[in-house]
């Protein structure tokens, strides 16, 4: 029983650990994005430091590396005997992908904050709840231009929405995962939230390198 767990979780972790922000910066600009801006590997810092094309590419690839393993791994033969069935397999793989992004083996175990990869996992697990996440994120960022605030509120909204869209409500393993994922997003943004309280958080700008 341990073999399917190890294989599926390993695939999820390695997929999530692919540091696209770091690689795209090196391949197309010859720079290490960790030395620029906030030093983060996520799409926001790539956008601010290297421009919209690489920023959007990083966002999409980071989302994809969360969604793909959740879709694909539970359908592999090795997952046939996964404890708890396909749902638990998908949740475990999704959590592993997020962990891989945040603590990537390919960049000294220092990755991004996990929002885009978490969004990809959430989209694959529960599209209706993800729609609520996306709506709150977009509206919050549009009104405040704080990506961190949009990420935190969006993650909390996703967890709350799962209570209504999941057939078993709060008893669903997917709901419990949504709560855990939201908690991880909040914890990864705790410094941003402190800066928000102090009025020091940077607002997002569509202009590269701008700090309104």
TrEMBL record:
Going by the entry's taxonomy, the superkingdom of the source organism is recorded as: Bacteria
Question: Does the keyword Cell membrane belong to this entry?
Answer: yes
Q: Which UniProt keywords apply?
A: Acyltransferase, Cell membrane, Lipid biosynthesis, Lipid metabolism, Membrane, Phospholipid biosynthesis, Phospholipid metabolism, Transferase, Transmembrane, Transmembrane helix
> What InterPro entries does this protein map onto?
G3P_acylTferase_PlsY (IPR003811)
Keyword check for Cell membrane: yes
Membrane topology, from the record: Multi-pass membrane protein
Any Pfam family from its record, for instance, is G3P_acyltransf
According to the UniProt entry, its GO molecular function terms are: acyl-phosphate glycerol-3-phosphate acyltransferase activity
**Looking at the UniProt record for this protein, which Gene Ontology cellular component terms does it annotate, in alphabetical order?**
plasma membrane
- The reaction(s) this protein catalyses: an acyl phosphate + sn-glycerol 3-phosphate = a 1-acyl-sn-glycero-3-phosphate + phosphate
Query: Subcellular location, in the record's words?
Result: Cell membrane
GO BP annotation list: phospholipid biosynthetic process
EC number(s) on file: 2.3.1.275
Q: What class of enzyme is it?
A: transferase
Which pathway, metabolic or otherwise, does it act in?
Lipid metabolism; phospholipid metabolism
**Function, please?**
Catalyzes the transfer of an acyl group from acyl-phosphate (acyl-PO(4)) to glycerol-3-phosphate (G3P) to form lysophosphatidic acid (LPA). This enzyme utilizes acyl-phosphate as fatty acyl donor, but not acyl-CoA or acyl-ACP.
Subunit and interaction comment: Probably interacts with PlsX.
Report the sequence similarity comment from the record.
Answer: Belongs to the PlsY family.
The name this protein carries in UniProt is Glycerol-3-phosphate acyltransferase
The species is: Eiseniibacteriota bacterium
């Amino acid at each position: 029983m341990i073999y399917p767990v190890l294989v599926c979780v390993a695939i999820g972790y390695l997929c999530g650990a692919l540091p696209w922000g770091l690689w795209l910066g090196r391949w197309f600009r010859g720079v290490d994005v960790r030395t620029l801006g906030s030093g983060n590997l996520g799409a926001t810092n790539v956008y601010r430091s290297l421009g919209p094309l690489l920023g959007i590419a990083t966002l999409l690839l980071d989302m994809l590396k969360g969604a793909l393993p959740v879709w694909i791994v539970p359908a592999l033969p090795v997952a046939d005997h996964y404890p708890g069935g396909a749902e638990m397999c998908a949740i475990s793989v999704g959590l592993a992908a997020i962990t891989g992004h945040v603590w990537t083996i390919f960049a000294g175990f220092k990755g991004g904050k996990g929002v885009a990869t978490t969004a990809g996992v959430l989209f694959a697990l529960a599209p209706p709840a993800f729609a609520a996440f996306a709506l709150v994120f977009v509206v919050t960022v549009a009104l405040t231009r704080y990506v961190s605030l949009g990420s935190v509120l969006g993650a909390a909204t996703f967890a709350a929405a799962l209570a209504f869209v999941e057939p078993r409500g709060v008893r669903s393993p997917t709901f419990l995962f949504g709560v855990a994922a939201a908690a991880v997003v909040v914890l990864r943004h705790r410094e941003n939230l402190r800066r928000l309280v102090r009025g020091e958080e940077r607002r997002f700008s569509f202009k590269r390198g701008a700090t309104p």
